[in-house]
Design a protein that fits this description.
The protein has a single domain (94-330), classed as MetI-like (MetI-like fold), CATH 1.10.3720.10. The protein is 69% helix and 0% strand. The protein has 16 helices and no strands.
Length: 331
């Protein structure tokens, strides 16, 4: 008997039918309650929200609860301890004190803006240049890409400590290198005038690879036809970049720009690891983050520190709103 016939006869035989006991058990099962059937239908229709809802609620609580507590502290005179019985509501006094503080707050805000603008511009320019160089294949391309991405491997605190040793005025490698080439040693981080530019250099060194990574991914997704057409038309390298590549790269450039702006705006770890609390003895590198940290953990002025953080949070929200308006306008 052929194999197919045997298989067919096997399927047609009575062995494939359920046993009488199983049929009787299935027929005796009670139908689900009406409320359960209604819930099952609703859950099936909204399964996306049902499955992701717990995670969204958890993440939302992680954001909302600390934010609401910080907002509450900003309206109190909390100091030295966080005992609710010792707190008194003071209204907008902390905000008035912060916004009228021309000695610490506004200089820190100016340094924050200056630090952000300088490092983001330099990182975007360097990132675009390096990404364009790495776009075309060449000998050792993978090795060069790996070397460029190395700064992203280390944590910002470790990077800060490493560069602090390099820029140490007496035994640091930077001044030793200057001596070898006949230049006078510099103060670097210990100098009030050179500290902020030095920290900008460290930030550029660490985060330019991230910009390269984003822009390189954008370049890899561009179509080749527009650039080939401009090449046939005789366009120069600069014109091909300015009129063809850059407009096509605009969404990727804007994404990298916004990510790095927000990240640079709230930089803390590199600054703190290299200069400590207060941003130096003369507050030469004190940004809003360092200012809030010092007020909170060294002077224990919790109410005023909370007001600084709320103002800082509003500034970050304004940056996000500008990005949203820009995308809405493009759409």
């Amino acid at each position: 008997m052929p194999r197919a016939s045997r298989v067919g006869s096997l399927h047609d035989s009575g062995d494939s039918q359920p046993t009488p006991g199983l049929t009787r058990t299935l027929s005796q099962r009670k139908p689900a309650p009406a409320w359960w059937r209604a819930y099952s239908g609703w859950a099936n229709r909204h399964r996306n929200w049902v499955l992701t809802g717990p995670a969204l609620v958890f993440v939302g609580l992680l954001i909302i609860v600390p934010l609401c507590y910080t907002l509450f502290l900003s309206f109190t005179n909390a100091r030295d301890n966080l005992d609710l019985s010792n707190m008194k509501l003071v209204g907008l006094k902390n905000y008035v004190d912060v916004l009228t503080d021309t000695e610490r707050f506004w200089p820190a805000a100016g340094r924050t803006v200056l630090f952000t603008v300088v490092v983001v511009i330099v990182e975007m320019v360097l990132g675009m240049g390096i990404a364009l160089l790495l776009r075309r294949p060449f000998v050792g391309q993978k090795f060069v890409r790996g070397i460029i991405l190395l700064p992203l491997v280390a944590t910002p605190v470790a990077v800060g400590m490493m560069w602090r040793l390099i820029f140490e005025p007496t035994i640091g490698f930077a001044n030793q290198l200057l001596k070898w080439v006949g230049l006078p040693p510099q103060g670097w981080v210990s100098s009030a005038k050179q500290a902020l530019p030095t920290l900008m250099f460290v930030d550029v060194w660490q985060w330019t690879p991230m910009v390269v990574l984003i822009l390189l991914a954008g370049l890899a997704s561009l179509p080749e036809e527009p650039e080939e057409a401009s090449l046939i038309d005789g366009a120069t390298t600069w014109k091909r970049f300015w009129y063809v590549t850059l407009p096509l790269m605009r969404p990727t450039v804007v994404a990298a720009l916004v990510l790095r702006t927000i990240d640079a705006f709230k930089t803390f770890d590199i600054l703190f690891s290299m200069k400590g609390p207060g941003g130096g003895s003369m507050h030469e590198v004190e940004t809003l983050n360092i200012y809030a940290y010092t007020e909170n953990f060294f002077y224990t002025r919790y109410g005023q520190a909370a007001a600084i953080l709320i103002v800082f949070f509003v500034l970050v929200l304004m940056l996000l709103a500008l990005q949203f308006l820009n995308r809405t306008k493009e759409t």
